[in-house]
């Protein structure tokens, strides 16, 4: 075995077999499960001492819940999640409802799977349990520091100076991915917006709670999202606003004072909902510019490491699951997978060719979608509200088929709508 860096000898070299996945978030566990289901020996390493997710609720659109159904996990998520009746958009300054989309009935039929809102720890746990049950080897306290191709195989070095080798390395190490630096010198792009989140037992929720909808309040340079969790026993609130300190170029931005001020023009119901947010932690929001290649030899990036996006379309985790599902499809279409290690070259190339244009589109539309939410001038607001109202009374598929429909089915849908 060659050493990783000329002149330095690793303390230990471990052969992980077919696949090594780096990162135990939703993206990494999804990819590990998908490849294990395809028959590969998979080892997943995670730098944290325990597997877990920080944060509150997560919206899972039909493009992701179809994949959970394929893996036999949809019922488990339905047991702990909520299938909202409506997605409702309101003007946060006037309180006016501008769009009400039914998420049941025709919507569910059209996309062949439900829209679910769930606690992100529940989804993470369900995926983790499935991956362990399928036979993925899990290791915590392993921080990957770099990648090299050694004897045609993928290899990573870890912080404790070990080297892990496998036929392919899947980098699922998130927004601030170490492995992405093997492919690109780019940096995360700050949006200047910051999120505060809160998931409270329903008995502790102070403001009025619509228990059958995902409600999105659109305000000037801010929005607020509310929905029920865990069969209605919990309630999720997310407040996202533009930080004046960021605009002034200050290093610290998105303080609690800024949070209160950001919603001062909003209706009392929105201002009251701020009491349901946790105040000890906030999430400054970043994405990255799309890049064309996520592949270097036997290294492939997936999830936020490959295509981090602003959360306005609620698609980051959904797209990570789409990544996993395609890996499974490509493995299934490969003769003698996983024994035929040479096939990884075409699997990784085909994956990149299929996924990069789609996720680049989602990344770009997420930015534009967020901008349309946050307008503050009278005329743009008027136009935005008119457009939302018109969308509600038209065929909604023209706006969302590209995102939610099965890709094969999408080709057959007559899509003449707005080009994103
Ligand atoms: C406010 C907010 C709301 C959101 N809402 C939604 C939503 O409703 N629906 C949706 O689909 N998406 C949503 N998202 C996006 C979604 O959370 C992410 O896209 C998704 O969690 C990314 O998963 P990941 O596994 O790719 O990355 P991560 O969850 O970041 O996981 C990366 C993992 O890699 C580990 N790691 C990092 N570096 C190393 C290393 N060097 N060595 C070993 N391990 C390492 C980390 O510890 C972590 O466990 C939201 C995001 C935000 C910020």
Quick tags:
single chain; 420 residues; alpha/beta; seven-stranded mixed sheet; six-stranded mixed sheet; 19 strands; 35% helix; globular; disordered C terminus
Overall helicity: 25-40%
Would you report the number of β strands? 19
N-to-C CA distance: 49 Å
Q: Pairing-aware structural class of the strands and helices?
A: alpha/beta
What is the alpha-carbon Rg in Å?
Answer: 22 Å
Uncertain segments of ≥5 residues (pLDDT<50)?
Answer: 410-420
Shape: globular
| Mean of residue pLDDT values | 93
- Order of the strands making up the biggest sheet: 6-5-14-15-16-13-17
Helix run count: 14
**What hetero molecules are bound to the protein chains?**
flavin-adenine dinucleotide
Largest sheet: 7 strands, mixed
Note the beta-strand portion.
15-25%
What does this structure look like?
The protein is α/β, with parallel strands linked by helices and 420 residues long. Helices cover 35% and strands 25% of the residues. A 7-stranded mixed sheet has the order 6-5-14-15-16-13-17. Strands 8-3-2-12-19-18 form a 6-stranded mixed sheet. A hairpin with a 3-residue loop joins strand 10 and strand 11 (162-166). The radius of gyration is 22 Å and the shape is globular. The structure holds flavin-adenine dinucleotide. Residues 22-28, 45-48, 58-59, 142-144, 172-175, 178, 195, 238, 283, 303-304, 311, 314-318, 320 line the site of flavin-adenine dinucleotide.
Give the arrangement of secondary structure elements.
Elements: E1 12-15, E2 19-22, H1 26-37, E3 42-45, E4 57-60, H2 62-70, H3 74-80, E5 86-91, E6 97-102, H4 105-111, E7 116-119, H5 120-134, E8 137-139, E9 144-150, E10 153-158, E11 162-166, E12 168-171, E13 189-201, E14 213-219, E15 222-229, E16 234-242, H6 244-247, H7 256-262, H8 268-273, E17 283-287, E18 295-296, E19 299-301, H9 303-306, H10 316-332, H11 344-373, H12 378-392, H13 397-404, H14 407-412
Parallel strand pairs: 1-11, 2-3, 2-12, 3-8, 5-14, 12-19
Antiparallel strand pairs: 4-7, 5-6, 9-10, 10-11, 13-16, 13-17, 14-15, 15-16, 18-19
Helix pairs in contact: 1-5, 1-10, 2-10, 10-11
